[in-house]
Amino acid sequence: MDKCTKCEKRKAKRFCPALGQSICSLCCGQLREKKLHCPPECPYLSKHKSYQEKRIIERQHIPHPRQTFEEEDILKDERMAWLAVHIEAPLMEYAEKDPSLDDKDALLALEYVREKTEKDKGRFLMPDESLKPQNDLGEAIYHMIEQCKHEGRIIMPGISQTYSKEEKLKVLDKIILTAKYLAKGNLEGRGYLQAVKERFSRIKGMSQQKKILTIP
Asked: What pLDDT digit, counting tens, does each position of 135-184 carry?
């Protein structure tokens, strides 16, 4: 039996349709849906997809969600709240266009954006970057974050309108925790997405003072 084409150490027991070559089970697990565009018909993808999604969604544990929300709420800051609005704008628009979109889809998109933001690769193309799977909703949110600038009433000299990587991650973490709490364990439902819709309805009047950029 041939050796794995990736690690060149272990026996290649699985054929990878994404690579068109045989790889070992360990490399399959490490690369699957992370560095490879795995086709839906791949038997190893369908077998492990639900498990991988569960791991992504449960990555952050909420021991006391109510206490987490009330203490040191970063969204009480106008600047951070403005970024949160732009993060959730694509979620609202996608949810309105696609009734099948649920809280699990929203959380996976948010986690996708967080991982991409944390790596902060900018515009440089990394090796195997084109092989990595993309989350369309996540890409829309990421693009919105990159374009977002705080438009405060008073612009102070020396204060940047753009957001730092740390600010982006803080707001994303806050939204992800909130989404998990509002989903109330039913990720196949729309508890969080409905809350987003209601929140945007309440702040609709504010759009006369600040323009919320939306996806076409």
From this structure: 899 999 999 999 998 866 544 454 558 899 999 999 999 999 899 888 88
Separation of alpha carbons 79 and 152, rounded Å: 8
Q: Is 143 exposed, middle or buried (0-12, 13-18, 19+ CB in 10 A)?
A: middle
Residue-range domain boundaries for the chain: 19-57, 65-208
Going through 104-165 in order, the beta strands assigned E by DSSP cover none
Alpha carbon distance 64, 19 (integer Å): 44
**Tokens 């909420």 -> residue:** 62
Q: Residue type at 49?
A: K
Q: Which is it for strands 21-23 and 14-16: parallel, antiparallel or unpaired? A: antiparallel
| SS3 assignment, position 90 | helix
Cα 57 to Cα 154: distance, rounded to the nearest angstrom: 39
Distance CA 112, CA 154 (A): 34
What digits encode the pLDDT tens for the residues 180-206? 888 888 889 999 999 999 988 887 765
